[in-house]
């Protein structure tokens, strides 16, 4: 005997409608399982095959809830199959929130939209003694819990091939829900948290326009958006929200760190008091040259720590600003030394040369120079600069020679040997290092 149950399941799965028709028409119903076939077509098949099966079964024979849940896995025909199943069901028996969760799990965007558009919300609107509307959630599972829907959409894992459009997709779905919902039935703070993380300005604008701002800690919300680099939300807030509600110091500092010149200018136009030194420090820390230049051009220099700024220009390699500071301000040897060391350690040799020229070689003590200044395959230029511009006795020749053998710095090795500096390192050790690293030319030199 053939297994007709398996045959019907496979025919349904692969949409072989001729076989499905033959089994349903010519064979005894005891030989196959309609429910199992419906589950198979719900997960894998299409509407035509499903319709054949539904025509052959009674409404009370099918587990529509399970079939709807399985339809969410159907990559090609999810929505069409789900619509057929829904129309066949007694909707009062369905848990549409469970189905929605499954649709979000499998990223079935069209089905999610259909559920939100088609199914009633789980809210009951009543009137208070003062005539105001009061929305409360009902417990009926066939109604869609919009707060649950928001959570499911926020938590959706996006397929790799669709990640480029994930923010656009999620914001469209969320706005679809919000425009059909009363804010009181949605956990606004949870939504706001994600909105501020993702810089979803449209939803941010919607929330602030429909939720009593007195119930929101605007300053804390904006600070949170700052922390996640949500430029559009911050710019909109500075243009549309009362500045007294904003933690201006924090927004100014964060804007400088992220390089948001538009936001810096907006704050500058509307506020008088903020921590400008902290703002400048943040701009320098994150290498925001255009912010540092703007602050110097628009703010009185006495509000800044100029020696600190010189050090940061050396660290960041901002040679034009370094030259400008040298031209307009006086720095002592200690300040010049600090800035020059920073330039050397970060491979900015033009700035280092300017610093040494300004003070003179005798004004520098390079014994404090960090080994990171000349350790690494990309530091040959720095090492060459040091050997030719300062007293070699003030730097670690042994480490430099070892690195020459590690990275094949032939010219550096020649300089050390030609200038009788080899006595400051263990030549047998560096010889072995050169051998271990296959540096034949340096081995021959030694």
TrEMBL record:
Q: Which InterPro entries match?
A: Ankyrin_rpt-contain_sf (IPR036770), SecEffector_AnkRepeat (IPR052050)
| SUPFAM superfamilies documented for this protein | Ankyrin repeat
Note the superkingdom of the native organism: Eukaryota
**Name recorded for this polypeptide:** Uncharacterized protein
Species of origin reads Mytilus galloprovincialis
């Amino acid at each position: 005997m053939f297994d007709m149950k398996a045959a019907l399941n496979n025919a349904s799965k692969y949409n072989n409608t001729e076989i499905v028709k033959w089994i349903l028409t010519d064979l005894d119903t005891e030989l196959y399982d309609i429910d199992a076939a419906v589950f198979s077509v719900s997960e894998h098949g299409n509407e035509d095959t499903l319709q054949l099966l539904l025509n052959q079964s009674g409404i009370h024979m099918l587990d529509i809830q399970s079939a709807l849940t399985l339809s969410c896995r159907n990559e090609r025909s999810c929505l069409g199959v789900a619509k057929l199943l829904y129309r066949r069901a007694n909707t009062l028996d369905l848990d549409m929130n469970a189905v929605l969760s499954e649709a979000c799990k499998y990223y079935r965007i069209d089905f999610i939209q259909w559920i939100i558009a088609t199914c009633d919300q789980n809210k009951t609107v009543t009137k208070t003694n003062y005539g105001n509307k009061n929305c409360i959630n009902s417990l009926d599972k066939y109604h869609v819990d919009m707060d649950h829907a928001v959570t499911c959409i926020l938590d959706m894992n996006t397929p790799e091939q669709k990640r480029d459009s994930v923010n656009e997709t999620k914001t469209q779905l969320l706005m679809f829900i919000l425009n059909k919902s009363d804010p009181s039935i949605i956990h606004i703070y949870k939504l706001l948290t994600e909105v501020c993380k993702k810089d979803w300005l449209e939803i941010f604008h919607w929330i602030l326009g429909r939720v009593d701002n007195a119930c929101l800690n605007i300053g804390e919300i904006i600070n949170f958006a700052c922390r996640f680099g949500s430029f559009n939300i911050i710019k909109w807030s500075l243009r549309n929200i009362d500045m007294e509600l904003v933690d201006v110091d924090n927004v100014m500092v964060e804007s400088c760190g992220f390089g948001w010149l538009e936001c810096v200018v907006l704050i500058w136009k509307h506020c008088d008091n903020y921590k400008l030194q902290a703002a400048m420090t943040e701009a320098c820390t994150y290498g925001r040259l255009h912010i540092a230049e703007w602050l110097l051009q628009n703010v009185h220099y006495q509000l800044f720590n100029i020696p600190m700024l010189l050090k940061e220009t050396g660290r960041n390699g901002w040679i034009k600003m370094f030259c400008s500071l040298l031209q307009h301000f006086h720095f002592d040897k200690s300040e010049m030394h600090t800035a020059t060391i920073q330039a050397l350690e970060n491979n900015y040799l033009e700035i280092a040369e300017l610093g040494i020229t300004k003070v003179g070689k005798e004004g520098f003590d390079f014994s404090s120079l960090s080994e990171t200044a000349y350790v690494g395959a990309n530091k040959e230029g720095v090492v060459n600069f040091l050997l030719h511009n300062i007293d070699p006795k003030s730097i670690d020749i042994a480490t430099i020679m070892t690195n020459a053998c590690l990275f094949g710095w032939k010219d550096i090795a020649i300089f050390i040997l030609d200038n009788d500096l080899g006595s400051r390192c263990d030549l047998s050790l560096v010889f072995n290092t050169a051998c271990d690293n296959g540096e034949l030319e340096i081995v021959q030199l030694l």
